[in-house]
């Protein structure tokens, strides 16, 4: 049985979890492919690997991105530019109904579409930003890759940005306070520069 342990004592957001999933081994191209099937307009997806370990996930409207001296801090960057049919900047976004309709109508993997919609519903926002929308899709795509059978959370709060945890924990509950021993465990760390959230993820097979 595959188990995913998430230490969210520094907060949990879709962006931080997306970064942690990439650090665990999910290919950025998996997330990029699902996003490319949506009419998001041109966007710039990036994964910044930190010197201290871990990945910071981010997305910007448009196909160019200014680094703001990021390389001076010794971070490695993986960038992906994607085109689209309609342009939306981070400030405009979509209504919750529009975002749900986009997910239903796009040719996404069934599991990705359903999980991303559940995350956005849990957010409870009347307006969905590009970052919120894309993070939900990227987390759903990463989840389809790992397919954990049980999930355990530690230190998770109750903010709207942590709705992703509500969805995932509800689908794959683990007994509270119980940490099963894992074989062949891997560790990943994700950061969300916008909220300061930091997620530490450990994934492996439960020893029974």
Give a written overview of the molecule:
With 208 residues, the protein is an alpha+beta fold. The chain has one domain (2-63, 76-206). The chain has helices spanning 14-24, 28-36, 96-105, 110-123, 130-146, 163-171, and strands at 2-7, 43-49, 55-61, 76-82, 94-95, 127-128, 150-154, 182-192, 197-206. Strands 4-2-3-8-9-1-7 form a seven-stranded mixed sheet. The chain has a two-stranded antiparallel sheet with strand order 5-6. The longest helix has 17 residues, at 130-146. The radius of gyration is 16 Å and the shape is globular. Residues 65-75 and 84-90 have low confidence and may be disordered.
How many structural domains?
1
The amount of helix comes to: 25-40%
State the strand order across the main sheet: 4-2-3-8-9-1-7
Main sheet properties: 7 strands, mixed
Radius of gyration computed on alpha carbons: 16 Å
Task: Please state the overall shape, judged from the principal axes of the Cα atoms.
Answer: globular
The assigned structural class equals: alpha+beta
Please provide the ordered H/E string of secondary-structure elements. Answer: EHHEEEEHHEHEHEE
Mean pLDDT metric: 79
Let me know the number of strands: 9
Number of helices: 6
Proportion of strand residues: 25-35%
